[in-house]
Amino acid sequence: MLSYNFKYELKLLLRSRWIQLLSIILLVLFGFSTYNGLQKIEKREKDIADAHLEVKENDIMMLKLLDSVERGMQVSASRWTIPTNPMAVGNYRPRVAAMDPQPMAFIATGQGDLFTHYVKPKVSGDDFALNFAEMTSPVQLLFGSFDLAFVIVYLLPLLIIAFSYNVLSAEKESGSLRLLASQPIRIHSWVLQKLGLRFFWLSVLVIGTLVLVFFAVGLNPFSDVATFLGLIALVLAYMLFWFAITFLINLWVGSSAKNAVTLLGLWVAFVLLVPSMLNQLGNTLYPMPSRTLMINEMRTLKAELSERQDEILDNYLRDHPEYAINDTTQSRGFYHRYMASQKLVKEELSPLVSAYEDQLKKQQKWVGNLKWVSPAIIAQESLNEMAGTSTRDYEHFRRQVIGFAGKWREHFLPFLFNNQDFSQKDYTNLPQFQYEQKSYASFGAIPILLLISIVLFAVGFLFSGQTKKAGMLSSS
After folding, report:
1. To the nearest 10°, the Cα dihedral for 142, 146, 147, 152?
2. Residue 8, domain extent
3. How many CB atoms lie within 10 A of CB 179?
């Protein structure tokens, strides 16, 4: 019976042009989304390269200025920008702290629409006020990016629904179901075989299309076999979930129209409503402290500290005797007092910043604990992690940038407090940022999706007896 179903289903799909149509649709969707993702990565790489080029050109000018000053020549530059002043170097010659795109970053834009891929920390900046956000169109944020993850998570389920919503109802409505009733096979087994064959052909088309598209855009999917196989396994597991849903609906609902409406309702629920509800509930249960309040408190605190900067500077020098070897307090100016007060500002605002970050972590944990409610969330997060554009990736990048900002600031403090000029020989010792990618287990979602699918198939087998009607493939 299985071999007969295989031949019959293949002829049916070919004659109805479903396989041809799906091949064209998948090729267009996967091709355009991959190309679009690569364009975004190319723009990111160009932005980072331009930032590095700007730093390189500024460094050339800085070295020329330093050489002229050290030779005793007159220079046409503002006094506060001459690089012999260490604070001028720290503020006007910052390094680029960049998050280079990962090899599979084109798969999912993830948080890339919200956060920048590079920052230039300065000595006079605040760690907690570093700007990681990009100026992004709200319309684009509303509709998202047309990347490969969008096609897989949002559009592929719709193709599965259109491909399999009427497997049983079409036979019933055409009158051929009564002819099949004489065959020694249960209704759920027959439907499972039909859907299994469609899952097989759609899987072949998806895998073949992905390989073809990757080669067409100049990517070798076999250069990183483990990641590519992980991508294929994740897509197949996500597809299996939707075929399990169609299996249940075909058994329980009845007519083709009702099947289509029910499946589309489930698509809206799992892909749109559940993620939105979890996000809103997270915001309600763990509301974020006002960022405006944090900025106002920061300004108020800085205003209060500015009135007693001399006292703060004395206390700072008392805690750092290496900066007070010589009694040169008379020559200390704005930056001496400012840098001394920065540590106190950071300590005073630490509880408020921690509350902001703690609430954000609670929201993320809330979504993480309940993401199994929607396989769409599981698939999206896994694709983001595979691409290196997940929330955890950008949080990891942020922590590294904050650490580098502190290192950059600390590098210039001895120059400042010892009244030491910055020279050409000090240029080679400037700190450089090196992003360290942290890998996350993105394949853990596959067993979860498989488990959910198995449970759905089991439910279909256990309760399929409720759908049996006289003369319709009753038990053998």
Report:
1. 90
2. 2-34+147-284+455-467
3. 9
